[in-house]
């Protein structure tokens, strides 16, 4: 969902910010499209067109989106509950008020 007053402007590629900041813009938009929005194809094409209008090179956009999606898809299947091992027994404790 984009608010009605969305202008389509992001950090311009030709600005004097570092390449890392420009990459983070693409990563943030990719995360939003992948995790929050349902019709992924429409949202990714909207993101790519918007970034092209802001001066981003097509190779830089595709390279960053590809690596971010690869990272997101590989981490979707990780079960975090298996990483956290419960204690074999609970330690009883009580609090004493001052």
Describe the protein's architecture and organization.
Helix 1 (19-35) runs antiparallel to helix 2. The longest helix has 19 residues, at 58-76. 51% of the residues lie in helices and 0% in strands. The mean pLDDT is 83. It is an all-alpha fold. It has a domain at 19-81. It is built from three helices and no strands.
Largest sheet: none
Cα distance spanning the termini? 51 Å
E-strand count:
0
Mean pLDDT: 83
Helicity range: 40-55%
Number of helices: 3
Strand content: under 5%
Can you tag this structure with a few keywords?
98 residues; Helix-turn-helix domain-containing protein; single chain; HTH_animal; mainly alpha
Q: Helices and strands in order, then pairings?
A:
Elements: H1 19-35, H2 40-53, H3 58-76
Helix pairs in contact: 1-2, 1-3
What is shown here, in short?
With 98 residues, the chain is mainly α. It has helices at residues 19-35, 40-53, 58-76. Helix 1 (19-35) crosses helix 3.
């Amino acid at each position: 969902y984009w608010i009605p007053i969305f202008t389509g402007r992001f950090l311009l590629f030709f600005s004097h910010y570092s390449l890392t900041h420009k990459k983070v813009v693409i990563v943030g938009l990719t995360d939003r499209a992948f995790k929050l929005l349902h019709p992924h194809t429409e949202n990714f094409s909207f993101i790519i067109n918007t970034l092209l209008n802001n001066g981003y090179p097509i190779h830089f956009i595709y390279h960053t989106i590809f690596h971010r999606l690869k990272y997101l898809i590989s981490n979707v299947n990780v079960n975090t509950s298996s990483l956290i091992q419960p204690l074999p027994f609970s330690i009883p404790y009580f609090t004493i008020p001052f």
